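Archive transcription. Copying these from loose printouts into the bound notebook so they stop getting lost. Printout 1 of 2:
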Amino acid sequence: MKIKPIHVGDTKYQLHELTFHDTVKISRIPEQHNEQRITAFLCAVLRNDTLPLQMTVQERYYLLMHYLDTQTDTVISNKRPYKNYMLASQQPFETQAEFGNATCRQLTGRDAETLESLCTEIGDWFVGAMALQLNSPDVPNLPPLPAADCTDDVLIESLKARAEVLKTLPQSQFNLFYGVYAHMQDEMATLCRLSFDDDGFTVLGGTDDAPARFRPAAALTGLAYQLDRYSAAKGWPIGGGHADDV
């Protein structure tokens, strides 16, 4: 399988086809840990063990969708129109947005895995994402965002402390800050538009396309697919009961 180089801003990504060993490593990760699976998938197709945790979540899903769109040896009988979920934006790719006194940074792969380890329902995901992205002197008592190179422990403690401040805001104040946050999210959405449900990230499509969760499992075919289902049968959930899981 040959994949054309993918350009995001000033970065050029070259994806390679998964090896059978790559697929086995992915299938060993419980499927409900979709962000961990995406990290393992990207480490394999990019031939890079560190970049997937550093890149933005938009980039992660954009590259996954490109790979799935290129793949022809697929177990999916009716191939999903992946391009409906990829934006044809002419705006430059930005990792941060500003609005008034507030700033918002894009979520990274490490952020996504951190959220996945802590969130149990949709409200957790939304507040957790805000806590990892939003910075504003107008939010009372909101601690500053940690440095990008902070330890995992520092990131988790910062997330919990900032989320607690956001959750205890009066509803009118929270709605105001969420509106600012959502506006900056839209400004940064140049590859795909992300949202959440109870199980994690979803990607928003066009008017006639339901939100979808894209999974590396869709890239596993043949014996790799059978082994992945075998692992799931041992007690690891396969998806979250969503008709649009892929």
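Printout 2 of 2:
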Amino acid sequence: MTIVAVIGLVLLTLLVVPIGFRWEAAWPGDQTRVVSVRWLFGLARFEFDLAEPSADEAQTRTESKSDASDGMTILRIIRNRAARRRLRQFVGKLWRSLHATDLYARLRFGFDDPADTGVWLGYVSPLTVALVAIPVADIRVQPDFSGETFEFATRGAIHIVPLVILWQCAALLLSPTIWRAARQN
């Protein structure tokens, strides 16, 4: 019994230690796409290079088929008003559990027709305004009305506590509102 308690305490302690995600990407520039994950205050480090796969790797990937009933269950949950409210609460709590320490994004775009550039600026601007509300974010959108161009660069760091994420996911999955919405005909 004490061994189970000790193992449980160790697992709980490990789940309380934050996980840090850091990324850096640029398009079309040097095609840098790096994601690093740090856990246990840097003792466990993993770095992933997300460069474009080679032609051979792209050919060997196969798509998996999903069951249509899973999609119908998700649609039933989304159509239910109480379940939508519960999902919004879940997403809000997850968003608040993310702790960003550095966010930077720069988007420069333009089309042949300056009117198209203006229309897309109208689509992108509300998202930019929402992201600028994050205190540590430096978000820049630069339209180029003189010609066709696309440049995007981003970097950032986010810390999460796994126990909080697991707790929120369990609360959502065990919510009676979600279960009632999933069982509706």
